[in-house]
Amino acid sequence: MSESIIQINQLKKHFPVKDQSLFGKSSKVVKAVDDVSFEVKRGETLGIVGESGCGKSTLARLIMQLIRPTEGSVIMGGQDLAKLSDKEMKRARKSIQMIFQNPYASLDPRKTVEQLIVEPLVIHQVGTHQERVKRVKELLEVVGLSDYHATRYPHEFSGGQRQRINIARALALNPEVVICDESVSALDVSIQAQVINLLKDLQASFNLTYIFISHDLNVVRYISDRIAVMYLGRVVEMGTYEEIYHNAQHPYTRALLSAVPKESPLIKKERVILTGDVPSPMNPPSGCHFHKRCPYATDRCKTEAPALTLYEGQHKVSCHLLGNLS
Amino acid sequence: MSFDLKQGETIGIVGESGSGKSVTSTAILGLIPSPPGKIERGSILFEGKDLTKLSQAQMRKIRGNEISMIFQDPMTSLNPVFTVGNQIIEVIRLHQQLDKKAARQRAIEMLKLVGIPEPEKRLEQYPHEFSGGMRQRVMIAIALACNPKLLIADEPTTALDVTVQAQILDLMKKLQDDLQTSIIMITHDLGVVWESCQKVLVMYAGNTVEYATVEELYEKPLHPYTWGLLDSQIKSDTTGKLPSIPGNPPDLREDIAGCYFAPRCPYAKDKCFSEKPPLVEVAPNHLVACHFQTSDHRLERKGGSQA
């Protein structure tokens, strides 16, 4: 459990933004992911939460090397994925797969389920034709579909079933790490519960490691062993789920948790309502990115960016006022 | 389905996608495309008038003026080639006899009301210059510009982050207090219902399965589908396997004889597959459509059903 499987060091991704004028040089950059470091342990689920635009999905793509980082490294299996050539990366991707957000858009409508699931096996030249067909049957069974589904097309399935097909495809190559980018967000609650149960069962049977990205705090809390909270490209707080949900230290995490709708009409919920929107990452506030919306901000927060420091146990927080918040 | 709504009250309509929540709301507004859609029978009474009998022209006067709607997706329901101001002023000028200047003034007031800073400047901007939460505020400003008596909010916060959702729900509540608007809140998120509604209607496959006050539904839910729905919500104390409702919602193109929920219902008996249960009042203000939930007979609720 404690062995680390992926190590991310000072990962940065800056997107250049063109000037207003047509031939203007790109002078500004969007710091979509700005100096993120953490490690993922074998067999655990690391949840990543944050509002839209905070860099969650960019981070997922960086780990997959679907986009290359500006700086930093992603160490997996002793090699730095960021330094691999595209060809070497293709091979490395066998052990790291992704399940995307939208079950309607991530399946090619002109391919049958069998063709969709077999595709990774073909690309990586795994097995003979018969073996592949057998594997597809196995996978369909694993995700709770039947082998007669294999000849059907994606449009014949509901959202939850399509997400099952996506999961089967991601598992085809026996990956070690699966990145779920908002994989259950588009589903209805009753179906969402089915898919989450499936993901948990699969994790237990195949010893999978998940990086689970979602904006839904309840889902992340339920599925994750550890959670990282992101705000404007940086990790502001990280820890086990008890540490985050019962002892949140960063003012942003607290506000985020208090914004979750209440669970019963009978309770009254104290709420920290944040004013304003997430600032533009093109022009982030100086110092601590959160200081403009933070009710506790001091002068120091405006000028100096806090570092992610250890609070206790595995709990890391990036706030100047750490320990001094009531 | 049937329900009624009093002034200043909020009713929630919950259900999964495809359960007919949005069709209900578009029917009220007379926006169901016809053909192929048709209101088979029934009436929609609004202040004593039957909306289904009104002509297109009469309906146009009510729509956007007395009854207005906030649509789900703020990214696509604003017109990208017109400024935000233009779109708010359009509604005001259409329904109220105001000149351009006064309408503009009213638009600025509305933007201020929904909490958009620098409204004079923002009026001249296009939707793409606004963030998701800001666009939803603009949608609310448009919907409220004519002080409607009834506001239909179709998943108003689904596309938004929780922090922005909290802001928008807060805003809607405040505006409701000020303007005494009645709200129909359509959502799949029970949390939003607990947050903002007094009454709630649970829909499944185009039918009302349960109708009660929010507290009643939370404490004493009766329909097996409502149980499943409540169970599959993840709460802060959820551990172990997540209870889920097995199977998928039915295909409404097929004729179904019995209860629409029967194939997924762990309590279903033969009767459920052959006869459709009526919606009956089993307790004061608590209606449920289930053969086995009547005023003198109750089902025993088992622990969450397993997937």
From TrEMBL, chain A:
Pfam families: ABC_tran (PF00005), oligo_HPY (PF08352)
A GO BP entry: peptide transport
ABC transporter domain span: 17-257
Annotated PROSITE patterns: ABC_TRANSPORTER_1, ABC_TRANSPORTER_2
UniProtKB keywords: ATP-binding, Nucleotide-binding, Transport
UniProt GO MF annotations: ATP binding; ATP hydrolysis activity
InterPro entries from the UniProt entry: AAA+_ATPase, ABC_transp_ATP-bind, ABC_transporter-like_ATP-bd, ABC_transporter-like_CS, Oligopep_ABC_C, P-loop_NTPase
Domain of life assignment: Bacteria
Family designation: Belongs to the ABC transporter superfamily.
UniProt protein name: Peptide ABC transporter ATP-binding protein
Organism per entry: Brevibacillus parabrevis
